Amino acid sequence: MTAFFALATSLLWGLADFGGGLLTRRTPALTVVVVSQGIAAVMLGAIVVATGGWSEAGPRLWFASAAGLVGPVALFSFYKALALGPMGVVSPLATLSVAVPVGVGLFLGERPGLTQVAGIAVAVTGVVLAGGPQLKGAPVQRQAILLTLLAAVGFGTVFALITEASTTVTGLFLALFVQRLTSVATGGLALCASVKRGGEALPPGGFPWTCLPALAFVGLADVAANGTYSVAAQHGPITVAAVLASLYPVVTALAARGFLGERLRGIQAAGAGLALVGTLLLATG
Question: Residues in domain EamA (predicted)?
Fold first, then answer.
């Protein structure tokens, strides 16, 4: 059961990342975040009411609120990086978010084993190579790499906070609902500030109503992935769940290749692969 739900998580996250990155190529990233997370918040609110999740309210929800503040920054950075592309490089680098729990462990007095040390070295090498050192042609934009690393730190922080925000399934729904509400409020304020500074909230043609189903899919897939990952971690070793769930960049890369026809240079593909291998070593160490 752990393997099934963890692989479902990787599929959902991978497709959500692909959809979010693709939508950001037509619609401002903040708008994609606010609308998709807003739709998810409505659905989660209905689930909380149906399951009586309000009974799980308590001090732990402050962790969910904190995750809601960090989440929009991570999503905005990641979707923007995916829009700059190529997705096959950007998505694997985001799996470095697993380094955040390792850092928390170090702060609490834990010491990494040889496998984790090797994972850190391999991942850093992957980051450098995925940046695209080459003799000719344009490398992957440095901005895309920096945005992806920022997103990775944000995602890792969110995962750590959500873990502390609930101890039961109904509590998880409530925590995710509070997180999404905070995310929508935070993203909405950032969007308003961007508009006041001259930024655009909508594409030239107005609100992309034809993209509404895709926006809904991105938000709901992200929520569903959080749920399946929680189930996977509760029914088996967290290490196994984390490793299998971290395969979501493969889904994103395959979707980018299948739908967009992306092709990676050898050194970029090797770097992205090393980053993914490093992440797996960190997770299993």
Answer: 3-130, 144-283
